[in-house]
Specification:
Helices cover 0% and strands 37% of the residues. The strands form two sheets. Strands 1, 2, 3, 4 and 5 form a five-stranded antiparallel β-sheet that branches. Strands 6, 7, 8 and 9 form a four-stranded antiparallel β-sheet that branches. By secondary structure, the protein is an all-beta fold. The chain starts with 29 loop residues before the first strand and ends with a strand.
């Protein structure tokens, strides 16, 4: 006796609309956003870019609703100054209950092999 397999294919068309919250790459803004985003209760979004910023070596950013239906991006820290690390590693940040952000970099630091950083509000 042969068994028959049933295959179901679900196609979702026009599932959702897309809206750009921020365009990177202007001035000392970040470039090459590669990390996942995290969301706090406000709701603000946090992430990193691999390049850009004041030193060209990445930023930690926050995007927040601006009350007019749009979002405003703020550079929280421009990486690559001194030994703080540079070029974030492309993984997401971690946010603790006190609002501190933690993340890794792939370069910089005292041995130029990367760092783990903490940003406090």
């Amino acid at each position: 006796m042969r068994s028959q397999a049933t295959v179901a294919l679900l196609v979702i068309s026009s599932w959702a609309s897309e809206r750009v919250l921020h365009n990177f790459g202007s001035g000392t803004d970040g470039q090459n956003a590669q990390s996942s985003l995290i969301l706090d209760a406000s709701p603000d979004l946090y992430g990193t870019t691999y390049a850009g910023g004041s030193h060209g070596l990445g930023i930690v950013f926050e995007t927040s609703p601006n009350g007019s239906g749009g979002w405003t991006e703020s550079v929280l820290h421009s990486l690559g100054q001194g030994l703080d690390g540079s070029t974030p590693a492309g993984v997401g940040l971690v946010l603790d209950g006190s609002g501190n952000l933690y993340g890794p970099t792939s370069a910089g630091g005292s041995h130029d092999e990367g760092t783990v950083f903490e940003l406090t509000p």
